[in-house]
């Protein structure tokens, strides 16, 4: 009598997860360690204003600890996490990296408030904070910013604003190198 044969369906591609699980019941924690955080495994770094804003908005609600789990080692540094967040979102551009909000302005081209557009950077120079402009129309500036909210840096988050949160009007704008 012939030994029974086992048939395997190899018509589809196997994922890294299915290969690991099939190799001996590896735990989900081990799968996550190999696969990495979902955000790190995403497509290439954004290179256009629209793509930068889409990515920045995808982190809405994340705290510094959550962002540290996403950022590569270059971005895990001491500094202004609002600037590190902007640097991370612009990592696919030729803008450069700055861990300081005050130094980030030097990496960009200044623009007037009348000419600000999606993907530009807003500086709240009265408070030393920066964010990304989502849009500018009808007298409203819409932004996405890291390290905002009440409390300290560990309780602050990435947030979306309809208008600048600092109503003193002490802000300026600049365009990154797209």
Task: Write a brief structural summary.
The chain is α+β, with helices and mostly antiparallel strands. It has helices spanning 16-22, 28-35, 49-58, 64-70, 81-89, 101-104; strands at residues 109-111, 121-124, 129-137, 140-148, 157-161, 171-175.
Kindly report the average pLDDT value.
76
Q: Outline the low-pLDDT stretches.
A: 1-42
Our Rg estimate from Cα atoms comes to: 21 Å
Helix content: 25-40%
SS-based structural class? alpha+beta
Task: State the shape.
Answer: globular
End-to-end C-alpha gap: 70 Å
What pattern of helices and strands is seen along the backbone?
A: HHHHHHEEEEEE
Largest pleated sheet: 6 strands, antiparallel
Instruction: Give the total of beta strands.
Output: 6
């Amino acid at each position: 009598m012939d030994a029974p044969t086992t048939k395997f369906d190899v018509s589809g591609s196997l994922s890294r997860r299915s290969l690991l699980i099939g190799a001996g019941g590896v735990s989900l924690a081990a799968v996550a360690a190999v696969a990495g955080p979902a955000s790190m495994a995403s497509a290439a770094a954004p290179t256009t204003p629209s793509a930068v804003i889409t990515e920045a908005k995808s982190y809405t609600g994340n705290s510094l600890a959550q962002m540290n789990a996403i950022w590569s080692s270059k971005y895990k540094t001491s500094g202004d996490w609002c600037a590190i967040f902007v640097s991370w979102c612009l990592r696919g551009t030729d803008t450069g990296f700055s861990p300081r909000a005050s130094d980030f302005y030097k990496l960009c081209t200044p623009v007037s408030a009348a000419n600000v557009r999606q993907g530009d950077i807003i500086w709240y120079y009265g408070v030393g904070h920066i964010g990304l402009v989502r849009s500018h129309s009808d007298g409203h500036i819409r932004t996405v910013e890291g390290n905002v909210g009440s409390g300290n840096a560990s309780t602050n988050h990435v947030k979306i604003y309809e208008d600048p949160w600092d109503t003193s009007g002490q802000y300026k704008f600049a365009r990154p190198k797209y």
